[in-house]
Amino acid sequence: MMFRSTVVVLLFVSAACRSAAPLPAPTAAPAAPTAAVAIPDAIRWVRDAAEYRAATLQAYRLATSSVEAAAAGRAPGSWAVVLDADETVINNVTYQLERAQQGLPYSSESWAAWVRRREATPIPGAAAFLARVRALGGRIAIVTNRLQSECADTAAVFERHQLAHDALLCRPDGGPSDKNPRFEAVAAGKTPASATPVEILVFVGDNILDFPRLSQPSALAAEAALAPFGTRYVVLPNPMYGSWQPR
Ligand SMILES: [Mg+2]
Q: In the chain, what are the domain boundaries?
Protein backbone atom coordinates (compact mmCIF):
# COMPACT_ATOMS: atom_id res chain seq x y z
CA MET A 1 0.00 0.00 0.00
CA MET A 2 2.69 2.42 1.00
CA PHE A 3 4.77 1.41 -2.02
CA ARG A 4 1.91 2.05 -4.44
CA SER A 5 1.13 5.57 -3.11
CA THR A 6 4.81 6.51 -3.29
CA VAL A 7 4.88 5.55 -6.93
CA VAL A 8 1.82 7.67 -7.61
CA VAL A 9 3.36 10.67 -5.88
CA LEU A 10 6.61 10.25 -7.70
CA LEU A 11 4.83 10.02 -11.03
CA PHE A 12 2.87 13.16 -10.22
CA VAL A 13 5.98 15.08 -9.23
CA SER A 14 7.76 13.94 -12.33
CA ALA A 15 4.90 15.05 -14.58
CA ALA A 16 4.68 18.39 -12.76
CA CYS A 17 8.33 19.02 -13.29
CA ARG A 18 8.10 18.37 -16.97
CA SER A 19 5.16 20.76 -17.39
CA ALA A 20 6.77 23.50 -15.27
CA ALA A 21 10.05 23.41 -17.12
CA PRO A 22 9.31 23.10 -20.83
CA LEU A 23 12.15 22.41 -23.15
CA PRO A 24 13.59 25.62 -24.51
CA ALA A 25 12.56 26.52 -28.01
CA PRO A 26 15.22 25.68 -30.48
CA THR A 27 17.41 28.64 -31.27
CA ALA A 28 20.09 29.32 -33.81
CA ALA A 29 23.39 27.75 -32.98
CA PRO A 30 25.65 30.23 -31.23
CA ALA A 31 28.26 31.78 -33.44
CA ALA A 32 31.54 30.02 -33.26
CA PRO A 33 33.79 32.04 -30.98
CA THR A 34 36.27 34.02 -32.97
CA ALA A 35 39.73 33.33 -31.79
CA ALA A 36 41.18 36.49 -30.33
CA VAL A 37 44.26 37.20 -32.37
CA ALA A 38 46.89 38.94 -30.36
CA ILE A 39 48.49 41.66 -32.41
CA PRO A 40 52.23 41.53 -31.86
CA ASP A 41 53.53 44.45 -29.85
CA ALA A 42 55.95 45.36 -32.63
CA ILE A 43 53.05 45.99 -35.00
CA ARG A 44 51.00 47.78 -32.37
CA TRP A 45 53.96 50.03 -31.62
CA VAL A 46 54.41 51.09 -35.22
CA ARG A 47 50.68 51.53 -35.71
CA ASP A 48 49.78 53.22 -32.44
CA ALA A 49 52.70 54.57 -30.46
CA ALA A 50 53.44 58.26 -30.20
CA GLU A 51 57.04 57.18 -29.67
CA TYR A 52 57.20 55.65 -33.14
CA ARG A 53 55.95 58.82 -34.77
CA ALA A 54 58.36 60.89 -32.64
CA ALA A 55 61.25 58.60 -33.60
CA THR A 56 60.64 58.88 -37.33
CA LEU A 57 60.26 62.66 -37.15
CA GLN A 58 63.42 62.82 -35.08
CA ALA A 59 65.28 60.72 -37.63
CA TYR A 60 64.19 62.89 -40.53
CA ARG A 61 65.02 66.09 -38.68
CA LEU A 62 68.48 64.68 -38.09
CA ALA A 63 68.77 63.71 -41.74
CA THR A 64 67.71 67.21 -42.75
CA SER A 65 70.30 68.83 -40.49
CA SER A 66 72.99 66.52 -41.85
CA VAL A 67 72.10 67.32 -45.44
CA GLU A 68 71.92 71.05 -44.82
CA ALA A 69 75.39 71.00 -43.26
CA ALA A 70 76.96 68.71 -45.85
CA ALA A 71 75.39 70.42 -48.87
CA ALA A 72 76.55 73.89 -47.94
CA GLY A 73 78.68 75.26 -50.76
CA ARG A 74 78.01 72.36 -53.11
CA ALA A 75 76.65 72.95 -56.59
CA PRO A 76 73.08 71.84 -57.22
CA GLY A 77 73.04 68.44 -58.90
CA SER A 78 76.49 67.49 -57.61
CA TRP A 79 75.25 65.51 -54.67
CA ALA A 80 72.54 63.06 -53.73
CA VAL A 81 70.82 61.24 -50.93
CA VAL A 82 69.84 57.56 -50.96
CA LEU A 83 66.87 56.16 -49.13
CA ASP A 84 65.28 52.77 -48.74
CA ALA A 85 61.51 52.62 -49.40
CA ASP A 86 59.67 50.23 -47.07
CA GLU A 87 59.49 51.33 -43.44
CA THR A 88 61.78 54.20 -44.41
CA VAL A 89 59.72 56.38 -46.75
CA ILE A 90 56.52 54.36 -46.89
CA ASN A 91 54.70 52.45 -44.17
CA ASN A 92 53.32 48.92 -44.64
CA VAL A 93 51.97 48.32 -41.16
CA THR A 94 48.55 47.50 -42.62
CA TYR A 95 50.04 44.53 -44.46
CA GLN A 96 51.81 43.38 -41.31
CA LEU A 97 48.61 43.73 -39.31
CA GLU A 98 46.50 41.82 -41.82
CA ARG A 99 48.94 38.92 -41.89
CA ALA A 100 49.08 38.81 -38.10
CA GLN A 101 45.30 38.83 -37.85
CA GLN A 102 45.18 35.91 -40.27
CA GLY A 103 47.84 34.11 -38.30
CA LEU A 104 49.99 33.95 -41.38
CA PRO A 105 53.61 34.90 -41.97
CA TYR A 106 55.04 37.00 -44.76
CA SER A 107 54.87 35.47 -48.19
CA SER A 108 56.04 36.87 -51.49
CA GLU A 109 52.58 36.26 -52.99
CA SER A 110 50.69 38.14 -50.28
CA TRP A 111 53.30 40.89 -50.39
CA ALA A 112 52.88 41.27 -54.14
CA ALA A 113 49.13 41.53 -53.67
CA TRP A 114 49.66 44.24 -51.05
CA VAL A 115 51.96 46.18 -53.35
CA ARG A 116 49.31 46.06 -56.08
CA ARG A 117 46.82 47.69 -53.70
CA ARG A 118 49.08 50.78 -53.52
CA GLU A 119 47.97 51.44 -49.95
CA ALA A 120 51.30 52.12 -48.26
CA THR A 121 51.37 55.49 -46.54
CA PRO A 122 54.17 58.00 -45.96
CA ILE A 123 56.39 57.66 -42.92
CA PRO A 124 56.10 60.80 -40.79
CA GLY A 125 58.84 63.23 -41.74
CA ALA A 126 59.77 61.64 -45.04
CA ALA A 127 57.94 63.94 -47.42
CA ALA A 128 59.31 67.08 -45.77
CA PHE A 129 62.85 65.69 -45.91
CA LEU A 130 62.59 64.81 -49.59
CA ALA A 131 61.18 68.25 -50.39
CA ARG A 132 64.02 69.89 -48.48
CA VAL A 133 66.63 67.91 -50.41
CA ARG A 134 65.00 68.98 -53.65
CA ALA A 135 65.01 72.62 -52.54
CA LEU A 136 68.70 72.40 -51.67
CA GLY A 137 69.56 71.04 -55.11
CA GLY A 138 70.17 67.41 -54.20
CA ARG A 139 69.22 64.36 -56.21
CA ILE A 140 67.19 61.62 -54.59
CA ALA A 141 67.60 57.92 -55.27
CA ILE A 142 65.27 55.37 -53.70
CA VAL A 143 67.04 52.02 -53.53
CA THR A 144 64.53 49.32 -52.65
CA ASN A 145 64.37 45.56 -52.75
CA ARG A 146 60.85 45.65 -54.04
CA LEU A 147 61.00 43.75 -57.29
CA GLN A 148 61.18 45.41 -60.68
CA SER A 149 57.75 43.90 -61.37
CA GLU A 150 56.47 45.81 -58.32
CA CYS A 151 58.17 49.07 -59.24
CA ALA A 152 55.29 50.71 -61.14
CA ASP A 153 52.88 50.21 -58.24
CA THR A 154 55.54 51.53 -55.87
CA ALA A 155 56.10 54.60 -58.04
CA ALA A 156 52.35 55.20 -57.97
CA VAL A 157 52.42 55.32 -54.15
CA PHE A 158 55.28 57.82 -54.23
CA GLU A 159 53.40 59.87 -56.79
CA ARG A 160 50.13 59.82 -54.87
CA HIS A 161 51.81 61.09 -51.72
CA GLN A 162 54.13 63.52 -53.49
CA LEU A 163 57.27 61.81 -52.22
CA ALA A 164 59.92 63.54 -54.31
CA HIS A 165 62.59 61.40 -55.96
CA ASP A 166 64.65 61.23 -59.14
CA ALA A 167 65.25 57.49 -59.35
CA LEU A 168 63.42 54.45 -58.02
CA LEU A 169 65.85 51.56 -58.24
CA CYS A 170 64.05 48.29 -57.63
CA ARG A 171 65.60 44.84 -57.44
CA PRO A 172 65.57 42.98 -60.74
CA ASP A 173 63.26 39.98 -60.52
CA GLY A 174 65.56 37.11 -59.71
CA GLY A 175 68.41 39.55 -59.14
CA PRO A 176 70.54 40.07 -56.04
CA SER A 177 69.19 41.88 -53.00
CA ASP A 178 72.61 43.44 -52.34
CA LYS A 179 72.13 47.18 -52.63
CA ASN A 180 75.80 48.10 -52.89
CA PRO A 181 75.98 47.87 -56.70
CA ARG A 182 73.01 50.23 -56.92
CA PHE A 183 74.60 52.63 -54.42
CA GLU A 184 77.71 52.63 -56.60
CA ALA A 185 75.66 53.20 -59.74
CA VAL A 186 74.04 56.26 -58.15
CA ALA A 187 77.44 57.67 -57.16
CA ALA A 188 78.83 56.97 -60.63
CA GLY A 189 76.01 58.85 -62.35
CA LYS A 190 74.61 55.74 -63.98
CA THR A 191 71.01 56.00 -62.84
CA PRO A 192 68.10 58.33 -63.55
CA ALA A 193 69.09 60.21 -60.37
CA SER A 194 71.99 61.81 -62.20
CA ALA A 195 73.81 61.45 -65.50
CA THR A 196 77.06 62.58 -63.91
CA PRO A 197 78.85 61.37 -60.77
CA VAL A 198 77.44 62.63 -57.49
CA GLU A 199 78.54 62.46 -53.92
CA ILE A 200 76.04 60.70 -51.72
CA LEU A 201 75.77 62.82 -48.61
CA VAL A 202 73.23 60.88 -46.57
CA PHE A 203 71.76 57.37 -46.52
CA VAL A 204 68.44 56.71 -44.77
CA GLY A 205 67.10 53.24 -44.02
CA ASP A 206 65.48 50.93 -41.50
CA ASN A 207 67.74 47.95 -42.17
CA ILE A 208 71.50 47.74 -41.66
CA LEU A 209 71.69 46.49 -45.25
CA ASP A 210 70.43 49.90 -46.42
CA PHE A 211 73.87 51.31 -45.61
CA PRO A 212 77.02 50.79 -47.67
CA ARG A 213 79.04 47.70 -46.91
CA LEU A 214 77.26 47.03 -43.65
CA SER A 215 75.72 43.78 -42.46
CA GLN A 216 74.49 42.45 -39.15
CA PRO A 217 77.88 40.85 -38.34
CA SER A 218 80.01 43.75 -39.54
CA ALA A 219 77.91 46.34 -37.74
CA LEU A 220 78.00 44.39 -34.49
CA ALA A 221 81.66 43.45 -34.67
CA ALA A 222 83.10 46.91 -34.12
CA GLU A 223 81.54 50.12 -32.91
CA ALA A 224 83.57 52.02 -35.50
CA ALA A 225 81.30 50.55 -38.17
CA LEU A 226 78.45 52.50 -36.64
CA ALA A 227 80.34 55.80 -36.50
CA PRO A 228 78.49 57.38 -39.48
CA PHE A 229 75.11 56.98 -37.78
CA GLY A 230 73.79 60.35 -36.69
CA THR A 231 75.54 62.21 -39.48
CA ARG A 232 75.91 60.50 -42.85
CA TYR A 233 73.72 57.54 -41.97
CA VAL A 234 70.27 57.84 -40.40
CA VAL A 235 68.32 54.78 -39.28
CA LEU A 236 64.61 54.53 -38.58
CA PRO A 237 63.08 52.04 -36.17
CA ASN A 238 61.47 48.89 -37.54
CA PRO A 239 60.69 46.31 -34.87
CA MET A 240 58.40 44.34 -37.22
CA TYR A 241 60.93 42.66 -39.51
CA GLY A 242 64.45 42.96 -40.82
CA SER A 243 67.80 41.35 -41.36
CA TRP A 244 68.14 41.16 -37.56
CA GLN A 245 65.69 38.24 -37.55
CA PRO A 246 67.09 34.72 -37.57
CA ARG A 247 66.74 33.12 -40.96
MG1 LIG B 1 63.05 48.94 -45.45
A: 41-235
Q: What is the mean pLDDT of each run of 10 residues along the chain (247 residues)?
A: 39 37 49 70 98 98 98 97 98 98 95 98 98 98 97 98 98 94 98 97 98 95 94 98 93
Q: How far is the CA of 206 from the centre of ligand 1 (A)?
A: 5
Query: How many angstroms is it from 218 CA to the middle of ligand 1?
Result: 19
By the 10 Å C-beta count (0-12 exposed, 13-18 middle, 19+ buried), 202 is classed as buried
In degrees to the nearest 10, what's the CA dihedral of 157, 163, 169, 170? -20
Rounded to the nearest 10°, the torsion over CA 153, 158, 161, 165 is -160
Q: How far is CA 188 from the centre of its chain?
A: 30
55 Cα to the center of ligand 1, angstroms: 15
Looking at residue 37, what is its pLDDT?
82
Supply the pTM of this predicted model.
0.85
Cα of 58 vs centre of ligand 1, distance in Å, is 17
CB distance 90 to 120 below 8 Å: yes
**Secondary structure of residue 27 in the 3-state scheme:** coil
Interval between CA 43 and ligand 1 midpoint (Å): 15
Please tell us whether the domain made up of 41-235 is placed in CATH 3.30.70.1400: no
Query: Which pLDDT value is given to residue 247?
Result: 80
